[in-house]
Amino acid sequence: MSQDTKNVVTRFAPSPTGVLHIGSVRTALYSWLYARQNKGKFILRIEDTDKERSKKEYEENILDGLSWLGITHDEFYRQSERGDVYKRHLEKLIADGVAYVSKEEPALEGQRSTVIRFKNPGRTVTFRDEARGDISFDTTELGDFVIAKDFESPLYHFAVVVDDFEMGVTHIIRGDDAISNTPRQILIQEAIGAPRPIYAHLPMILAPDKSKLSKRHGALAVTEYREEGYLPEAILNFVALMGWNPGNDQEIISLDEMIKLFTLEKIQKGGAVFNIDKLKWLNKHYLKLFSLEKAGEEILARFPETLKIKAHSEAKIFKKIVPIIIDHITSFGEVRALAEAGEYEYFFEDPAYLKEKLLWKDEQDSEVAIQKLKKIALLISNIDDVLFASEAIKSAVWDYATEAGRGSVLWPMRYALSGRDKSPDPFTLADILGKETTIRRINSAIKTLEE
Ligand code: GLU
Questions:
Q1: Taking residues 249-276, what's their average pLDDT?
Q2: Counting runs of H as helices and runs of E as strands, what totals does the chain give?
Q3: pTM above 0.85, yes or no
Q4: For ligand 1, is residue 62 a contact (CB within 6 Å)?
Q5: Which of 11, 14, 70, 317 has the fewest CB atoms inside 10 Å of its own CB, making it the most exposed?
Q6: Does residue 174's CB lie within 6 angstroms of at least one atom of ligand 1?
Q7: What's the CA gap between 347 and 417, in Å, rounded?
Q8: Which residue of 156, 174, 198 sits with most ligand 1 atoms within 8 Å of its CB, as the best mutation to test the pocket?
Q9: pLDDT value at position 107?
Q10: Of all atoms in ligand 1, which is nearest to the CA of residue 160?
């Protein structure tokens, strides 16, 4: 296969020895962006030459995560299915005299194994890294390194080089843990007659305290973020800016903008920092851009069964609480716990009251509270049915509340409507619940106080 360097070809080449992590997503995303920007090709290559550590479930996790994020590939390969290609190259290298079969010292008594070694010319290799500038390595001390255990079992460095060549990869964008692999890969490249691709190595992702990133800092597998209700847009935005920026301090960046603005030169040299608060902030941003209808579906999907049924039968109320729910979460995943803690129950069902909670802290006289609630019920019942909305409710009650003491009027009203220490303000609540329910709840709070 010939290589056409005019057409950009990038690849993401994960080993299926673990789940898709946020750091790998960045490698995939940058490679994908670069290909899309240049109307090139993006290849997904599963590097499963390590038969013991490679697992199908990890491959599935990687594919699943990428497709959820919308990082689509144009070609797909598995190294385990490409044995013939590596074999052909191994045979050629041996025929050319640049690789040889070597008998190894027995690892165990009675065993004698052979490997295929590369004849290392032992020179200094210099390559340009688009993110870091020129890098030089003296390869002498690598000696004649092993490139395959046998003709059927190529090692990682060899398979990578053969594949990048055969697949016409023009730009290798990958983590900087691969920098030290590059010189030996270049030697193999030269031996098989492959043109040198352009390299860009991405800085390591660190925790905010510059320590090694771990779960403790909120770094999860991509599928775990999905389960927690994070949005792909937020993850892509977050990952894009972890080690690259468009040349300004823009924080919100869409996929289309990334494709337009991405450059290898602007990849940071220094360690990129993982900040879970930033991801949360971004997620909240994208959450708010959701249509209420779609957000409603996401929320409903996380309601326990009984609440789901109530939400269905009280669709009007559910529709009104969607924006309130969104206001209080950073990801849809939080909805389940909030629902299970009873945060939404009272929108659909009259609450039970603790008598003492109906009393404002500075007004402990039940009689006074009863009179105030009666007055509110009256003011509310005077509001025209068609005008019953939070603004009208507020103006109906506000003057009286100001005159009689806002806390001592609005606290019992709010608690009567929600039965909870915390809830939206009483006008919003009355609006959501409707006139009839509002008055019914106020009356039942009065009854509780009278008991
Ligand atoms: N399979 C390698 C890894 O997962 C890929 C390195 C590369 O991109 O060349 O680390």
A1: 93
A2: 19, 13
A3: yes
A4: no
A5: 70
A6: yes
A7: 9
A8: 174
A9: 66
A10: 9
Percent of the chain topping pLDDT 70:
98
Query: Hunting for tokens 């920092």 — which residue is that?
Result: 273
Does 159 sit in the ligand 1 pocket, CB within 6 Å?
no
DSSP structural state of residue 244: B
Identify the pLDDT of residue 215: 86
Which residue is listed with tokens 């005299």? 97
Alpha-carbon distances of 64 from 17, 59, 80, rounded to whole Å: 15, 8, 20
From the alpha carbon of 178, which atom of ligand 1 is closest?
6
Residue to mutate (ligand 1; options 26, 27, 42, 47; most atoms within 8 A of CB): 47
Instruction: Look at ligand 1, atom 6, and give the residue with the nearest C-alpha.
Output: 13
Q: Where are the alpha helices (DSSP H) in 143-275?
A: 156-166, 182-192, 222-227, 232-240, 255-261
Q: What length is written for the chain?
A: 451
Residue 1 has pLDDT above 60, yes or no: no
Q: CA-CA distance, 415 to 181, in Å (whole number)?
A: 65
Average pLDDT over residues 26-53: 96
Model confidence band, residue 108 (pLDDT cutoffs 50, 70, 90):
low
With CA atoms as reference, report the closest residue to 441 among 421, 415, 422. Answer: 415
Verify whether ligand 1 is closer than 6 Å to residue 160 (CB atom): yes
Q: Is there an atom of ligand 1 within 6 Å of 13 CB?
A: yes
Is pLDDT above 70 for 267?
yes
Q: What average pLDDT score do residues 265-289 get? A: 93
Segment 414-418 shows an average pLDDT of 98
Residue 448: what residue type? T
Query: CA-CA distance, 393 to 384, in Å (whole number)?
Result: 10
Distance (angstroms) between ligand 1 centre and the Cα of 202 equals 12
Residue 170 has pLDDT above 60, yes or no: yes
Q: Mark 275-305 as b/e (b = at least 16 C-beta within 10 Å).
A: eeebbbebbbbbbeebeeeebbebbeebbee
At 220 the pLDDT is: 86
